[in-house]
């Protein structure tokens, strides 16, 4: 079977959506099913760019037949980790999203330690829904990679819009723990021999 260009694009969008949602399936939050839309026969766009007042498709179909702003899908498309606030146990995520003045949004930051040895990612909601556009994840492990993302919903609504991306960031290094199993052996009147095990926490 030979797929058309449109079918190929839809399949590409579906694969991207599948790969994105796999790490988030443990969140147990009801989210809308779709994450991307396709246009121009070759590109996938986040649903957050549909009816956002900016033409992303060459043919303008992403801004046609738009109705009330409450029908829009809102997604965080732009976010960054604040490198100035990063330390060994915390990461600060900032994001921005264009919305009409009449629309009030709430955000749910989530975090997952990057899994090792092909273990599944375990995402954790870091806080209750907030209205700020920045959040500091705390009580993290030093020098550890984390995936960060943000869910969106309309203020007071139960309908949750899924993330379209996540960022990977690493906490700073920390001071090592003291060496352990230290022993001292007197060699002679001017020399001693020290022996220890490497720190458990690098």
UniProtKB/TrEMBL annotation:
Task: Recite the UniProt keywords alphabetically.
Answer: Disulfide bond, Receptor, Signal
Which region is the signal sequence?
1-21
**Coiled-coil ranges from the UniProt annotation:** none
The intrachain disulfides are 39-57, 51-66
- Gene3D superfamilies for this protein: Low-density Lipoprotein Receptor (4.10.400.10)
Q: Which Pfam families match?
A: Ldl_recept_a
Instruction: State the name under which the record lists this protein.
Output: Sortilin-related receptor-like protein
Q: Which organism was this protein described from?
A: Triatoma infestans
Q: What is the lineage of its organism?
A: Eukaryota, Metazoa, Ecdysozoa, Arthropoda, Hexapoda
């Amino acid at each position: 079977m030979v797929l058309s260009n449109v079918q190929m694009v839809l399949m590409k969008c579906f694969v991207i959506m599948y790969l994105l949602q796999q790490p988030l399936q443990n969140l147990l939050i009801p989210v809308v099913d779709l994450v991307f839309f396709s246009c121009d026969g070759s590109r996938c766009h986040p649903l957050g760019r549909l009816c956002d007042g900016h033409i992303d498709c060459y043919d303008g179909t992403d801004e046609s037949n738009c109705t009330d702003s409450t029908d829009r899908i809102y997604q965080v498309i732009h976010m960054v980790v604040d490198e100035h606030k990063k330390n060994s146990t915390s990461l600060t995520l900032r994001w921005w999203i264009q919305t009409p003045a009449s629309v009030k949004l709430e955000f749910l930051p989530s975090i997952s330690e990057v899994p090792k040895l092909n273990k599944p990612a375990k995402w954790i909601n870091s806080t209750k829904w907030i209205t700020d556009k920045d959040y500091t994840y705390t009580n993290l492990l030093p020098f550890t990679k984390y995936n960060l993302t943000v869910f969106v919903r309309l203020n007071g609504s139960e309908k949750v819009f899924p993330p379209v991306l996540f960022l990977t960031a690493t906490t700073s290094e920390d001071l090592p723990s003291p060496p352990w199993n230290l022993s001292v052996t007197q060699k002679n009147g001017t020399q001693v021999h020290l022996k220890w095990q490497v720190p458990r926490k690098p």
